[in-house]
């Protein structure tokens, strides 16, 4: 494709960091996207099977583009916010094609003594009058700020959930002071788990809302500077609890675990066929595999199952690695997958998730191919602190990256627990 040939040489220059990217033709922005890794995400648009995995709309966009612009961000959360701001600014046709502006979701901050942060659909917002019609009320409410549009409601809600961990705010359907037993119960519960503010003064809460607004408006650098000033000022004035709180917020802001924000940019479909003799599960079933060992000893492999979004612990299985005595993760993975496939009585999953990179993914795919089974495989790559850094193949497999991370995390937790148990038994036997 001519467009791809023009852009491709510049891909390796993209940084391996979160950010937003813009496919452009001349000065026209065709598409805006976000990424955990700008380099890896943009590179995925030039796979040989782009037509099969992304569809004609994306292929047409990439073909027309003659360059890719990008903007790094400190976190994926800030990439999500920046993506929404750029979509609002440029109205890229590939982002909005087939969608009505009224279907997009927005984050709004209400104009109240105790402001709330709400998720509202475009059709319920009067942008000129800056009012909204709450879903459970016929009364219009004034809003202080509107952020968006956000293409994915799931990502917006996940982003606000992450923000609320750092800066607790109210998101009740009715004003905070409204008399409602249901709302009072919700406020009490969410306050106990730290999602809503605890005992607070109006001044402190307004300051929290200002911080939320800075983050949602893409002014993360300004927010960090403000927190640093507050921290140093409080320390000078010996308000040590406030200084510690500002330090906590700064740390949390820079260490957001937000890989779950990046989900599929488009619909993916997979033709999944089980090999002969294997029953196919009728539920959404993800199997995840991991291994654990100590200097090559007590090697344990595990299989965990996430069915319809929840761990199915009755289906967990443990494998003691037999054929590989050293730290051969790929060899161990091939062994436990082969042994798993020797159990035709176990329903086949719709997706398999492995711990590792491309080599681990390809090794699993070879085992499945040799067994005559066609199941898509996703891989979760970890950083030096064993945190998810990159998800490979999740979209093609028809699952979100959040689902892949959930399954992988459960497999890692289970493998560590089983390995510790095996090691303690070995020590007792001596």
Topology:
Blueprint: H1 2-7, E1 19-25, E2 28-35, H2 38-43, H3 50-54, H4 56-64, E3 67-72, H5 76-90, H6 93-96, E4 105-110, E5 117-121, E6 125-126, E7 131-132, E8 141-150, H7 153-166, H8 181-192, H9 202-216, H10 220-236, H11 240-254, E9 285-294, E10 297-307, E11 310-311, E12 317-320, H12 329-340, E13 351-355, H13 358-370, E14 377-382, E15 388-392, H14 394-397, H15 401-429
Parallel strand pairs: 9-13, 13-14
Antiparallel strand pairs: 1-2, 1-3, 4-5, 4-8, 6-7, 7-8, 9-10, 10-11, 10-12, 14-15
Helix pairs in contact: 10-11, 12-13
How would you sum up this structure, described in words?
The protein is an alpha+beta fold and 430 residues long. It has 3 domains: 2-96, 3-Layer(aba) Sandwich (GIY-YIG endonuclease), CATH 3.40.1440.10; 104-216, no CATH class; 285-429, 2-Layer Sandwich (Nucleotidyltransferase, domain 5). The chain has helices at 2-7, 38-43, 50-54, 56-64, 76-90, 93-96, 153-166, 181-192, 202-216, 220-236, 240-254, 329-340, 358-370, 394-397, 401-429, and strands at residues 19-25, 28-35, 67-72, 105-110, 117-121, 125-126, 131-132, 141-150, 285-294, 297-307, 310-311, 317-320, 351-355, 377-382, 388-392. The strands form 3 sheets. Strands 9, 10, 11, 12, 13, 14 and 15 form a 7-stranded mixed sheet that branches. The longest helix has 29 residues, at 401-429. The protein is globular and about 65 Å long. The termini are far apart. The model is unreliable at 1-6 and 264-277 (pLDDT under 50).
């Amino acid at each position: 494709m001519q467009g791809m040939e023009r852009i491709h040489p510049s891909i390796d220059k993209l940084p391996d960091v979160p950010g937003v990217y813009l496919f452009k033709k001349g000065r026209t922005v065709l598409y805006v996207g976000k990424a955990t890794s700008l380099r890896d995400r943009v590179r995925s648009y030039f796979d040989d099977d782009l037509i099969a995995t992304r569809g004609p709309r994306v292929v047409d966009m990439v073909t027309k583009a003659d360059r890719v612009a990008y903007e790094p961000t400190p976190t994926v959360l800030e990439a999500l916010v920046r993506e929404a701001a750029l979509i609002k600014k440029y109205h890229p046709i590939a982002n909005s094609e087939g969608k009505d502006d009224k279907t997009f979701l927005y984050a709004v901050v209400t104009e109240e003594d105790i402001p709330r942060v709400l998720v509202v659909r475009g059709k319920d917002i009067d942008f000129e009058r800056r009012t909204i019609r709450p879903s459970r009320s016929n009364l219009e409410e004034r809003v202080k700020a509107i952020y968006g549009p956000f293409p994915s409601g799931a990502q917006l809600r996940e982003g606000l959930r992450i923000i609320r961990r750092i800066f607790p705010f109210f998101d009740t359907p009715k004003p905070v002071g409204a008399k409602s037993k249901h709302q009072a119960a919700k406020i009490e519960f969410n306050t106990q788990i730290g999602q809503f503010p605890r005992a607070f003064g109006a001044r402190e809460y307004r300051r929290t809302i200002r911080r939320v607004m800075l983050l949602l408006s893409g002014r993360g650098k300004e927010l960090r500077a403000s927190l640093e000033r507050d921290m140093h000022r409080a320390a000078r004035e010996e308000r040590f609890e406030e200084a510690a709180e500002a330090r906590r917020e700064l740390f949390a802001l820079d260490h957001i675990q937000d890989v779950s924000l990046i989900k599929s940019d488009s619909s993916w479909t997979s033709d999944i066929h089980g090999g002969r003799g294997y029953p196919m599960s009728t539920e959404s079933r993800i199997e995840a595999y991991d291994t654990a060992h100590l200097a090559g000893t007590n090697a344990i492999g595990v299989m965990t199952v996430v069915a319809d979004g929840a761990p199915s612990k009755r289906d967990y299985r443990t494998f003691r690695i037999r054929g590989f005595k050293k730290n051969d993760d790929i060899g161990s993975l091939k062994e436990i997958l082969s042994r798993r496939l020797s159990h035709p009585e176990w329903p086949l999953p719709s997706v398999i998730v492995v711990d590792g990179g491309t080599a681990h993914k390809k090794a699993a795919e070879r085992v499945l191919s040799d067994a005559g089974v066609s199941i898509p495989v996703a891989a979760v790559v970890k950083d030096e602190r064993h945190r998810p850094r990159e998800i490979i193949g999740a979209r093609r497999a028809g699952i979100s990256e959040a689902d892949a991370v959930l399954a992988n995390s459960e497999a890692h937790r289970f493998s560590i627990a089983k390995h510790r148990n095996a090691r303690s038994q070995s020590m007792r036997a001596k």
